[in-house]
Amino acid sequence: MTDRYTYMAQYHELFALPYKEPTQRAVAKAVADCANGVLEMGAGTGLVTETIADASPGEVFAVEPAAPMRAVLMSRLARRPDLQRRVTVMPMSALAVRLPVRVDAVVLISMLLCFSPEERQKLWQVCADSLNPGGLLLQDRPEPSSAEAIPPAAGSLQVGRARYDIEYEGRPVREGVLRLSWSYRITVGEEPGIEEREEIDAYPITEAELDAELAAAGFDRADAPDELLGWRLR
């Protein structure tokens, strides 16, 4: 059995970086005063982790269960000895997190759809247990917000003599569940390409549903920079 994101990790930054930059700027603004630390759930390859560490003065706890993604994250930190004292990479599920200290903010970017409604209830409890009173929970706007089919979309990039093609789509598999798939192809010159495919089941949620779940978990809606949604722990 392959680890989740076995294939995606190597392509993630090539295709994600242009779309993540507005989110990175918004997160940097939101966590600038978090002197008592920030918890990032689903750190992935560390695009947002590095942003948080550069923008905030406290500790950063970066949670990422997938080894292929963590490999890129650790390589990023290897090039940043100035951050190694403050950034702790936690190789576990978000649902298993137990921090040694409480923090001022929890950041969830591009990861919430991986959790079923039942798992989200546990996630909100972990977030509440991790935050100082009045602490901030930051979430990007949930997309997709419904389990309707997503038509195929494609993109490509050239790196040296290699061409990287990606195709993305989503199809409903049962009520409230959307199977997202990414197909990758690498072609070097005229040689036959390498083809790889990754799939995950996603659990779409609307902003109104998210508000209701977090209100029940002890959070009130709060201001947040553009690109983000915010709540504070009561």
UniProtKB/TrEMBL annotation:
Keywords: Methyltransferase, Transferase. The keyword Amino-acid biosynthesis does not apply. Gene3D superfamilies: Vaccinia Virus protein VP39. The lineage of its organism: Bacteria, Bacillati, Actinomycetota, Actinomycetes, Pseudonocardiales. GO terms for molecular function: methyltransferase activity. Residues 38-135 form the Methyltransferase domain. This is SAM-dependent methyltransferase. It comes from Crossiella cryophila. Transmembrane segments: none annotated. It holds the Pfam family Methyltransf_25. GO terms for biological process: methylation. InterPro entries: Methyltransf_25 (IPR041698), SAM-dependent_MTases_sf (IPR029063).
